Amino acid sequence: MDLESAPETTTKTSSEERIYVATQWQLMWYRFRRHKLALVGTVVAICLYLMALLSGFLAPYGSLERFAQHIYAPPQAVRFYADGKLQAPFVYALVPKPDPVTFRRIFEVDKTTRYPLRFFVHGIEYKLLGLIKTDLHLFGVDKGGTVFLLGTDILGRDVFTRILAGSVISLSIGLVGVFTSFILGCLLGGISGLYGGAIDVIIQRIIEFLTSIPTIPLWMALSAAVPKNWNAIQVYFAITIILSLRAWTGLGRVVRGKLLQVKEEDFVMAARLSGASDWRILLRHLLPATISYLIVEMTLAIPQMILGETSLSFLGLGLRPPVVSWGVLLQLAQNVRTVTMNPWLLAPAVWVILTVMAFNFMGDGMRDAADPYHR
User: Fold this and answer.
1) What parts of the chain have a pLDDT lower than 50?
2) pTM value?
3) Is 109 in a helix, a strand, or coil?
4) Is residue 289 a contact partner of residue 262, using CB atoms and an 8 Å limit?
5) Are residues 131 and 188 in the same domain?
6) How far apart are CA 191 and CA 35, in angstroms?
7) Hey, what long-range contacts does 130-136 have (CB within 8 A, 24 or more apart)?
8) pLDDT (tens digit, 9 = 90+) per residue, 229-246?
9) Cα distance between residue 363 and residue 360, in whole Å
10) Fewest CB atoms less than 10 Å from the CB: which of 76, 164, 170, 295?
11) Does 108 lie in the same domain as 82?
12) Which domain holds residue 104?
């Protein structure tokens, strides 16, 4: 019995020893990987950002490319089975016809005409990763055919292509906005927690004032002040700053609370006695000591930024066409009649939901992993 249990005991002992000598980041990783939903959320988030980076390659068409004969065309299913046997992937042709009752254009599937799905085809030119000019696309069909995985919009533009193009703006605005709020939150929250006194009171009252203002009316008021003649880049950075003006308050309070806990520790006192300045203590000792919690807060703030941009653009107060973002795409879904007749226009909302859920799951897992008392 002793000999049989020896391997188990050895394995258990080596596992415990690995935990005892692990760094803080290794301990966080051990706890994080036990959170299955967090791992799934991380994989989904990485895939979404990879799709945004490779949007031009993954999309079969250009985001502004129009198909005048296929306005409000329904999604085309990719098929693998026909004539009683498996086939290479293909789509049936869509034939536009007038409805004899409503006189509205409808589309019928022409099962006599097939278009094989081709891979690595040449099409409209774009910049891969924003740097390399190329016209290579992952998939497409022969000339004369169409492949609309998620249908088309009011101008006959491919919805799937525009969702991929919109992900570049919507996902990047979350990262840029969180980075801006991270800088503001760390600096102002760090100053508040390090110095205390009157400075702390002033910063905390500012935070309370900003958090007491309803979010949507504040964003609407600030975005309405953006000049209408600004170009897309100027509006993009203006919206990012608007979203960051309020988002830093939560992070600022987290930083202040953590610094109040650690600023009396021995390593901080040793830094003071060695003649280190307040800014050096803040940037080199206090903030790094709370970096794991800051990363968790940043992860949970990204979906809020994305939802903020989507809400503003949906209401017509954020980004405006021809800029493509998920909020701009959802503007077409404001009309109940349009959504009832063309439900595929709500497809961008699925991407928003996936992104928000992925970051929330990932943030929950990181929060549990960063908690030293969580098991």
Assistant:
1) 1-3, 5-6
2) 0.81
3) strand
4) yes
5) no
6) 35
7) 134/57, 136/57
8) 777 777 778 888 877 877
9) 5
10) 295
11) yes
12) 68-154
